[in-house]
Amino acid sequence: MSAPGLGDWVSPEGALFGLLGGVGLVLVAAGLRRRRITLAERLAPALRPRDATSGLLREQPARTPFPVVERLLAPWLADVARWAERLGSPRAEVRRRLDRAGLAESVDQFRARQVVWTVAGLGAGLALALLIGAARGFAPLPLALLVAICGACGFAACDQLLSRQIARREERMVAEFPTIAELLALAVTAGEAPVSALERVAATAQGELSTEIRRMLADVRTGAAIGVAMTDMADRTGLPSLTRFAEGVAVALERGTPLAEVLRAQAQDVREEGRRALMEAGGRKEVAMLVPVVFLILPITVVFAVFPSLATLRIGL
Q1: Where is the Type II secretion system protein GspF domain (predicted)?
Q2: Are 185 and 193 in contact (CB under 8 A)?
Q3: Which of the four CATH numbers 1.10.10, 1.20.81, 2.20.28, 2.60.40 does domain 171-274 have?
Q4: Rounded to whole angstroms, how far apart are CA atoms 84 and 89?
């Protein structure tokens, strides 16, 4: 009799339980290390004034239709959001992208949305894995890899949706910019002050760019200089045309140069840029249209041209 091997003593179920136990111990150790209290956290309660109101009696805003479930899951969602932040972009970059998309939600709300999308992807991957396992047999490693890939796809899809929202909003702002610039030039030429002209255009126009102008005017009313407020608007949007617009208006206000000519020149530049972008898009579409012509229509044409000759030769033989 041969000596029993390792496969005779180790069963697949035992190996799976051992793997799960090891992963659990690693997660617990990582959580304890991450939750280590720092010196600043130890000294913070003694240095800041404490609120005598109990934490259970404080008003906590609810962001979902289920406030009780939200409060119960808030610590877990915060931990998962911090973990997602390590894998994704930092908070400052996410805040900038949310401003570029025109969304009023906070970074924590976006992280929670990413967690929800990831969980939805994991659920879809688990359902797909169960269907494949029921049809072709259960293979733990490929099915687990499939579930992980689906969860990563859900995480990336949420980020990609934000990128598409940013691109669409920037396209609308670029399309609105020439009209806004022409209206500002007309108002300045008629004798309006720059701030009054911006207020008039923001009150009459509708769109993403007019919304940004109203936000910039709100900053001016709070005491910010118009040049600084326009620079902040250009930084929020991230568009080169708006950056040139803000710099041109700031220089015109500082040096007293004619503002109407600057606005008309910038509007013309944006129109030329849009025309070039349209021609480039047309060129790319033309190249893409060659794919079905070369790989579908041309082979069918060759078959129709050659097949009668082959049929005739076969009859002759």
Answers
A1: 181-306
A2: no
A3: 1.20.81
A4: 9
Judged by phi (left if over 0) then psi (alpha if -120 to 50, else beta), residue 54 lies in: beta
Give pLDDT tens digits for 259-312: 777 777 777 877 887 788 778 878 888 877 888 888 888 888 888 888 777 777
CA end-to-end span of the chain: 72
Rounded to two decimals, the pTM is 0.62
Q: How far apart are CA 264 and CA 258, in angstroms?
A: 11
Give residue limits of the domains in the chain. 171-274
Whole-angstrom Cα distance, residue 29 to residue 23? 10
- The span from the CA of 89 to the CA of 76, in Å, is 20
In angstroms, the CA 308 to CA 224 distance is 80
Burial class (CB within 10 angstroms; exposed 0-12, middle 13-18, buried 19+) of 198: buried
Q: How many residues does the chain have?
A: 317
User: Residue 152: which of 179, 130, 120, 129 has the closest Cα?
Assistant: 120
Are 81 and 112 spatial neighbours (Cβ–Cβ below 8 Å)?
yes
Q: What is the mean pLDDT of each run of 10 residues along the chain (317 residues)?
A: 50 75 80 68 67 53 54 62 62 82 81 84 88 80 86 87 88 83 82 81 84 85 81 80 78 73 78 80 80 82 80 70
Instruction: Tell me how far apart the alpha carbons of residues 219 and 205 are, in angstroms, rounded to a whole number.
Output: 19
Half-sphere exposure of 90 (CA within 13 A, CB side): 2
Q: Are the CB atoms for 88 and 124 separated by under 8 Å?
A: no
Sequence-distant (6+) residues with CB within 8 A of 261 are: 185
